Amino acid sequence: MPDRQPKDEVPETAAQRRARRAQFLRDLMEARELRDRVQPRRARAARMRQQMRMRTFRW
Length: 59
Prior knowledge:
mainly alpha; elongated
């Protein structure tokens, strides 16, 4: 598998990785919210399925 970075670059720090991950998660959440606004019926059905999963979950 090829390396993601050229050999002369230093690997990213843990703080840079966390910042990049946090930005990705913000973008993902924003995309989900947009999808829920655009498709309210599908979003409602997904919420109902999630509630049913949580109700039937055993500890």
